[in-house]
Fold this sequence. Notes:
- This protein is α+β, with helices and mostly antiparallel strands and 224 residues long.
- It contains three helices and eleven strands, in the order αβββββαββαββββ.
- It has helices spanning 2-25, 151-156, 186-196, and strands at 96-99, 110-111, 121-122, 134-135, 138-139, 160-168, 174-181, 201-202, 204-206, 209-211, 213-221.
- The strands form three sheets. Strands 1, 2, 3, 6, 7 and 11 form a six-stranded mixed β-sheet that branches. A three-stranded antiparallel β-sheet has the order 4-9-10, with no helix packed on it.
- A hairpin with a 2-residue loop joins strand 9 and strand 10.
Amino acid sequence: MKRTLIAAVLALGIHAIILGAECNWYKPIFIDRPIPRVMTMTLASWQPRKPAVKIQDIPSKTPVRFKTPPKMLKEQITKPMPLKPDTASRPLSTASVAETVDNYKPAPETRLTDPETSKPIDRGNQDQSASPFVQEAKPLYQTNPAPEYPRMARRRGYQGNVVLEVLVSRNGNVSDLKVSTSSGYPILDQAAINSVKKWTFVPGMRGNENVEMWVRVPIRFELE
């Protein structure tokens, strides 16, 4: 036991000596550092200097002169010369366009309307010799059937006036025809053409001779 205690005491003493030597050997080293100085800077945008504005003196009230507009020239109005009435009548041609005169009501839904007066229109291709008497071609309304009113046109409420130009032959038949004034609806124009091309006419006459003649036939499509 004594040996053990002695050995323990020696060991503790040796350790104490070693620890004391290490404590003396390690010492902290303090380094003095300078305290940083804080600097503040402000940035401002550079602005150019504005040039000095010179204020001009306003002159006193001065009269303002306006240029006088040029005088308007009066237009000279010449009076029209009176027209001399033609004493000599123009010669009538054998082929002319004439409008029918008879009043006719073939059906309540399709009406044929005629102008009050009719004037023959010279085609320029016929003989210009004067004739003593010219009778215009006229359709036979009593025997000619009225144009049929198309069902589609009646359902859609189409109405209008069609004027046809018909070339009547010497025997009273239709040689040619065309639409002079449209109703605005092709279906009504075609219905008028299909009907009138089958019509018969009283042929036009020049003197005692039958001649070909253009005649205008107006047809009205009206719903009642």
